[in-house]
């Protein structure tokens, strides 16, 4: 039997809707895939007929191709990924490649052939190709049957200018847009369950994410910083996160706790966190902040308190989980792969100097009056300067040159 070159075809539909921006989006996805597929034997990735085609080195085995497809499917912007082969534009070759692809499609009963030709210089039309290749497959596999609507397996045949691509095993991708196509955001990243999911949601919509983590250090250990590093490494697998700023926050919380009425402490901590995150966003030239808040989940997440923290900053604050239940967030964290890490206990600034009964309906004028007793203006750049920065592999991110402030 002929050894065909293995390929992974990457399908994206949303990108297809972007009109003249399309090629920019495709290039972004191509670059992201190139970087994330470094550990795999990839020869080249090309744009072919409204898809990206990942060409694997001759002799690549099925297991490796399958692993590459699994990585591809998790990259934002990928709607579907198919494993298959490149072959000659010849009906016998295409049939042979289709049989080889079918053999690797797992257990199934029903199938159909979906052929497309990109160039009419190939004499056989797509309907005829469906017919001819379909009958040959039926003859070779009498135990399988053809089903036009919702078959178990669709055997794709794409004939382009100088080659044909044939595949059978397809898996759904995560969808969304390629990271780097929607700008840069700063995400408040705790070691909890919610904020990694919130970060991932923005990344899936094409934003490069920069994390800011407030550690209780030096009043607590640095354990939460290690968990956040583990979480960032999960996000790094799909090219979502560029860096994390770890901010020692414990001493400032202590000052706040000593100065403001106990019930206002949490609001003060959070307003200061937002301001520091905004300062880091300014330095990174990011366009928005992101949090993992969900309405009413805890005392600081009531409508009144959200308004009071939002008022601390000018940048828009995105809360992609605002209407999501905890159980739904947990399910997403499991899918993302961050849940186990987030379930470990580590004291961060959230557990430090907590009042017995925090305000649940803060009034902005009262908050501002209490805050006036604190040297916030001096603190914000000081805290941002003290942050430790850790970089992660993010193909879409270019570090900003320092500019005079
Ligand atoms: P999470 O599971 O994300 O920690 P949570 O349910 O514990 O959320 P809060 O502690 O009120 O809720 O935090 C709300 C949001 O504020 C978090 O989702 C995160 O975006 C931000 N945040 C909280 N603590 C920190 C921290 N230590 N460092 C950075 N951001 C934080
Ligand atoms: Mg938390």
- Quaternary organisation: single chain
Approximately how much beta-strand content do the residues carry? 15-25%
Q: What is the overall shape?
A: elongated
CATH architecture classification of the largest domain: 3-Layer(aba) Sandwich
The total strand number stands at 14
The helix-and-strand class reads alpha/beta
Pick out the low-confidence regions.
Answer: none
Largest sheet: number of strands, sense, barrel closure: 8 strands, mixed
Bound molecules: adenosine-5'-triphosphate, magnesium ion
Q: Strand order across the biggest sheet? A: 2-3-1-4-8-7-5-6
What name does CATH use for the topology of the largest domain? Rossmann fold
Give the H and E element order.
EHEEHEHEHEEEEHEHEHHEHEHHHHE
**Separation of termini?**
66 Å
Query: Which homologous superfamily in CATH is the superfamily of the largest domain?
Result: HUPs
How many whole angstroms does the radius of gyration measure? Answer: 26 Å
- The overall pLDDT average reads 93
- Residues in helices, as a percent range: 25-40%
The total number of structural domains is: 2
The CATH first-level class of the largest domain comes to: Alpha Beta
Number of helical stretches of at least 4 residues: 13
